[in-house]
Amino acid sequence: MNEFPIPVVAVGPGSQPVEDEALDYMPMPSSMMTFALPVINHDVEPALMAEACGVVEHLRELMRAMPHGSSLIPTLELLGMDEKVVRLINQTMGEGEVSISVRDSSRIRIQETVFAGVWRLHEFASDGRLTRDAIMACSIPPVVTQWAQKEVSLDCPLPEKTPGIMNALSVLTEVVGKARTYKAGDAAHVVNLTLLPMSPEDMECLPQTLGGGSVTILSRGYGNCRITSTGLPNVWWVQYFNSMDTLILNTIEVCEMPEVALASREDYEDSIERLGEWLQAMLASERLDA
Q1: Is residue 221 within 8 Å of residue 241, measured between CB atoms?
Q2: 97: buried, middle or exposed (CB in 10 Å: 19+, 13-18, 0-12)?
């Protein structure tokens, strides 16, 4: 995934350092996730292993035929497949850095595998039934950006200034203005709240005014990064926590999707190669067990 974005080039009131002011560097998180091939279960029946390998090989072929950024997204639907095969695929592809949940009448949960840009998508009906089970290869599943745009509104009246409010109203004016002029493809507009003097009343006012959205994204590449949509279209909270769960960077971003949540072209191409290594390891295990 994309690297932890420090230093941040921020915009907005208070985002530029005062001349000759000493720089106070924020601590970097100490933990980092690294890639390792999934552990092979040597007790699996050869027929199940062969079927799971066939699914992964098909996915890899689709990814090679549909490059990163293509209008077509490599997708395999697993609903109805042998449950033992699906369980083996889940076990061997593992869990990666990014988890996504979508709140609605139906529930959608998305988990990146250890192969960056390869996602497991599960959709549940209101009664808990699994209605979709898929593998998808892309920067982020399109359903995430689609749901982030549902039930949002640019009608965001600013609250009255009350005792304790310092910078919340100027931040809201800037964010709402940028949201109203945002067009697809525009560069992200970042307001770095960490660089601003923000009172407790400010930090209470901002989420109350912006409202809560339906999408929550958690990235665990370096420490934890929590990304949540708001009630305004294309407006996101992006918060970084170190390994001690201390908030070290707090931003509001106006963009279609924060870059930290996206798998890059390099991630995608690297995962094609790593899936090939995965297949070689699995097939070698199958031959040894034969």
Answers
A1: no
A2: buried
Phi and psi at 251, nearest 5°, equal -130, 160
CA distances from 112 to 1, 140, 261, 262 (A): 10, 9, 11, 11
Q: Which residues of 183-220 are buried (b: 16+ CB within 10 A; e: fewer)?
A: eeeeebbbbbbbbbebeeebeebbeebbeebbbbbebb
What distance in Å separates the CA atoms of residue 3 and residue 215, rounded to the nearest whole number?
22
**pLDDT tens digits along 234-283:** 999 999 998 888 899 999 999 999 998 999 999 999 999 999 998 888 77
Q: Which domains does the chain have, with CATH numbers?
A: 46-139+264-289 (3.30.1370.140), 147-261 (3.30.1370.140)
Tens digit of each residue's pLDDT (9 = 90 or more) over 79-109: 999 999 999 999 888 899 899 998 765 688 9
CA distance 228 to 258: 10
The model's pTM is 0.80
Counting beta carbons within 10 angstroms of the beta carbon of residue 76, is it exposed (0 to 12), middle (13 to 18) or buried (19 or more)?
middle
Order of all β-strands in the sheet with 247-254: 75-77, 130-137, 118-124, 107-112, 98-102, 212-219, 224-230, 235-241, 247-254, 189-192
The pair of structure tokens assigned to 37 is 């091939």
231's tokens: 């009630």
DSSP structural state of residue 72: S
Q: Quick one: which of 201, 211, 199, 202 has its CA closest to 237? A: 211
Pairing relationship of beta strands 224-230 and 212-219 according to DSSP bridges: antiparallel
